Amino acid sequence: MDMNQYLEVFIEESREHLQNVNDQLMRFEKNTDDLGYVNEIFRSAHTLKGMSATMGFDDLAQLTHKMENVLDAVRNHQLDVHTEVLDALFESVDALEIMVQSISEGGDGQLDVKLLVQKLQRIVAEEPVAHHAASSIEYDELVQTLLSQTADQGFNAFEITVQLERTCLLKAARAYMVFDVLEQAGDVIKSAPTVQDIEQEKFESSFIVILVTNESQEKLQASIMEVSEVESVKIAAVPVKKETEMEELVSPEVAAAIQEVTVSAPSKSPVEEKRQPSNNKTIRVNIDRLDSLMNLFEELVIDRGRLEQISKELNNSELDETVERMSRISGDLQTIILNMRMVPVETVFNRFPRMVRQLSKDLGKQIELQIVGADTELDRTVIDEIGDPLVHLLRNAVDHGIEMPQARLENGKNEKGTIRLKAYHSGNHVFIDLEDDGAGINREKVLQKALDRGIIDGKTAETLTDKQVYELIFASGFSTAEQISDVSGRGVGLDVVKNTIESLGGSVTIDSNEGYGSRFSIQLPLTLSIISALLVQMSEERYALPLSSIIETAIVQPKEVMHVHGQKVIDFRGAIIPLLDLKELFTVPNSVQGDHYSVVIVKKGEKTAGLIVDSFIGQQEIVLKSLGHYLPGVFAISGATILGDGQVALIIDCNALIK
Q: DSSP 3-state assignment of 287?
């Protein structure tokens, strides 16, 4: 059988399972008494092992198998959880991610995992066995959800391990008698081995059941021990999440199954719950297909503009009506397609808890990462680019934002620092705030470094506000760190962060309170493919300015224009801003100055400028097309678009114009 056809699905599902393992490990580390997390981790590891073995990736299968052994020992109370165990599991996940990445890049997924395998084997071998246990029982989503529902109704959940005497001849009969006792006390949710295997005596001498009951642990113990040939009974309370906590973890399939599954009333024969079939209403679509669909729709938007232009010129009522209907339908289609391309920022955020955990350990700090709004959605093209800037800002906050525990205690703070990553929608933008409760930014230190580097002069330094001073750390090569760190240095590379965000049509601002922390706020457009723009005329040429960069338009009389150091400036709402003549910048031919200036006021972060054009054409949705490899690096031009009459309009990059 050719496995290549399943490779893409394998890679995608492997990444999902590894991310789930990562998330559950992080939660389990904070609450090692909750074995529900371990069961969830075991389930994902078990699935990944099976898929890897089927696909022939032996190193993946071997490592996940050894992880299973450790997890199985933990959930059966045979292994005490300590730092070495958690570190080994996290290290295993890192190795698995490397192998899956290798496979996704066309590699064979091989990795030398001998030392890691030995470490996992040693952990299991060195730990004393707490008690003899039967074969393990898996707490899948359905079981966990059923347990949470019964817990909300006040019932207890117990995992009961029954050991029959090894000389017992009629094991199935004795097991039936045990089940009879259990069903008089409550409801059997699941057993291991299965009920069918127990009835057919396909077990050694022990079995496990999950029981929901109102009875006490002591009474259950006594009742079961009254059954002949029962050697021992071990009863452990099952940690159960509340139903409200389970909602976010339950898949649609399990939610549908839960509607059909109820715990049966006590009967004379034990019957396990059965998972009901459910209709899966989601499908996986290759991102290349979505890109192709988007490209085709972009062509449709261009033709829509052309039809609207022709309709205006012909002034035909029937054509107008048809074009209007087509515009409305294509607008709805545009919304659907753009939504299909939207991806939760969770796909970027979900790797940060592990990163912060490791950096904290390396630096000897205690840091809690709080993530808010992970379900906020952005276009995939923006998601692909925003990861690296956020990584740098996070490393920066961990290394130079949060202080050492002792220093925090001396300053009256909690020894554990907090970093808060928050994403939210506002209008046609997404905002991502990164806030820490660390040392903040030292204003005087930043100013002095800027003066030493020649970034500003003494006269300018005296006029800068706090916010303008903080902006200086985005200067290329700027750093206030006493020593260069392997993790980060505040300011080192922040110019790259700023440039990347601005290249996406976004902006980044800083606010800080020395001694109390800093906040970086990133503003990003929802999508980069189809944007709203203002079309302007310059001589015989037309240009497009993204609306996200525009504050307003204005008509300026020549007498209102002033000159400062050879630069045209105007008074805009009490602030002096520069005027840039786009006809001069782009060398537009046949340029003639009129009796007034048509000005577009644009912004870049906290900075503002006025762009002089000949006239305003109007607002229009345009398709942003790259200039390609033939025209790379054209100054202040981010791309081009095709207008309704078939002509090409260049799209102006306002960020490049404002220094």
A: helix
